[in-house]
């Protein structure tokens, strides 16, 4: 393998690696967005759960007893 072939092979490998890094970066970005969305949903559900707990005590018997 002469110098030109070696350089061409390195450029091809670099292009593939650069493309892979871009794909991985996009995946990490989308997972971060999904994590933020799930975190917000969890906070909302936690708030709703706390508000439900304030309305009726958990050990209170239903009125028909």
List keywords for this structure.
single chain, 65 residues, mainly alpha
Structure write-up:
- With 65 residues, this protein is mainly alpha-helical.
- 82% of the residues lie in helices and 0% in strands.
- The protein has 1 helix and no strands.
Helical content stands at: over 70%
Number of strands: 0
Beta content comes to: under 5%
What Rg, in angstroms, do the CA atoms define? Answer: 28 Å
SSE string, helix = H, strand = E? H
Short description:
The chain has 65 residues and is mainly α.
Note the topology.
Elements: H1 3-55
